[in-house]
Write a structure and sequence with these properties.
- This protein has one helix and 22 strands.
- With about 350 residues, it is mostly beta strands.
- The chain has a single domain, classed as Tachylectin-2, Chain A.
- The strands form six sheets. It has a four-stranded antiparallel beta sheet, with no helix packed on it. Strands 4-5-6-7 form a four-stranded antiparallel beta sheet, with no helix packed on it. A four-stranded antiparallel beta sheet has the order 8-9-10-11, with no helix packed on it.
- A hairpin with an 8-residue loop joins strand 21 and strand 22.
- The chain is globular.
Length: about 350
């Protein structure tokens, strides 16, 4: 799947300039379709408000919407599914979704052997790669750390609000339902006692580029890249992206190099990080740490964003409450017109100073 966003370059072909397809950044131009999925209060593993879209792919005419959901409770209430897990809903029209009866697909202890209040799949970023014939996912998984580790199913009570370990894991699936955990991902800045979570990623046909959120002395974004999805090379931290716990969605342009980033600042010291606005920025695969053309998009606040180019229409799936209390996933759409193929103006910095 390739998502094409507002670009600052154009492509020359046979003497004629062809621009990158653009996606409108003025949210009022989109048509709101309403709720397409919500958490089920009557289903034990997902009865806690906090559902978030983790991936949207269209394969063989079927839309696959992966999402994270969970429930409250400490060790004595966890049972066989614990805290935040991965679910799936499918659709034939991208609007009316049916949840898979085999949910949850992946639970925290599918990655780690311990279980407690603090355990959970905190982040998940999933997409289908046609060239691989598989769904690929990067997951930020948290488990109790240090001396407070307790074995899953071991009985007794494991304390709440304890110290944690976390790590980025990879997993693949042929059908989007049955998943194989490939193991922890090297080159993602994980260490004992830290909080490290997967963020957005892209694949250019030869290499994977992954962003991660780290909390080793501050909530920063870092980048890794490599040809082996599960063994990446660390590129380093990105001080300009001090975005707290914000999600980060990444889309590859049709030049196979330019990236558009979408995020909602939560915490950290990034300018404007206390508001609920969306931000867009531009970078490139050959230098994922250089952030350019940041601009703010006024909105009432969203948490996760997954955008699919579907024929002649953009489909934008999002969770709409940055406080983590959202219990629905919504959809907005926009037609892709011929005018979208005219050479675009460079993105403007709106209300935010350019990042050096």
């Amino acid at each position: 799947m390739r998502i094409l966003f507002l670009g600052i370059i154009s492509l020359a072909m046979l003497g004629q300039a062809f621009a990158l397809d653009t996606i409108p950044e003025k949210l009022s131009d989109w048509t709101e379709k309403g709720v397409v999925l919500q958490n089920s209060s009557g289903v034990a593993w997902e009865n806690k408000p906090g559902i978030a879209v983790s991936g949207i792919s269209k394969v063989g005419g079927i839309y696959y919407l992966h999402y994270l959901a969970g429930f409250n409770g400490c060790w004595d209430a966890d049972g066989d599914v614990n805290h935040q897990s991965l679910g799936l809903a499918t659709s034939t029209d991208g609007v009316n979704f049916t949840k898979f009866t085999g949910n949850p697909l992946l639970k925290p202890h599918d990655f780690v052997s311990v279980s407690s209040q603090e355990e959970g799949i905190r982040t998940a970023y999933i997409q289908y790669l046609p060239s691989k014939g598989k769904f690929y996912g990067y997951f930020g998984v948290e488990s109790p750390g240090g001396s407070q580790t307790c074995n899953f199913g071991g009985g007794g009570t494991c304390g709440c609000n304890i110290s944690v370990d976390s790590r980025v894991y990879g997993a693949t699936s042929v059908d989007g339902k049955a998943w194989t955990v490939e193991g922890s991902v090297g080159g993602t800045y994980s260490s004992s006692g830290s909080e490290v979570y997967a963020a957005g990623w892209v694949y250019d046909g030869s290499q994977f580029g992954l962003y991660v959120t780290t909390a080793e002395g501050g909530q920063l974004k870092s980048a890794s890249r490599g040809s082996n999805a599960w063994s990446l090379n660390e590129l380093g931290g990105i001080s300009a992206l001090d975005w707290g716990w914000s999600g980060l969605d990444v889309y590859l342009h049709d030049d196979n190099n330019t990236l558009t980033l979408i995020y909602n600042p939560q915490g950290g010291s990034h300018p404007g990080s206390s508001n609920d606005n969306l931000y867009f920025a531009t970078t490139h695969l050959d230098d994922m740490r250089k952030i350019q053309n940041e601009r703010v998009i006024t909105t009432s606040g969203v948490l996760q964003n997954k955008i699919l180019r579907d024929g002649n229409e953009w489909k934008w799936y999002y969770s709409d409450d940055p406080s983590w209390n959202n219990n629905v996933i919504r959809l907005r759409t926009h037609p892709i017109a011929n005018s979208d193929n005219v050479p675009p103006e460079p993105p403007k910095n709106l209300n935010v100073a350019p990042i050096p």
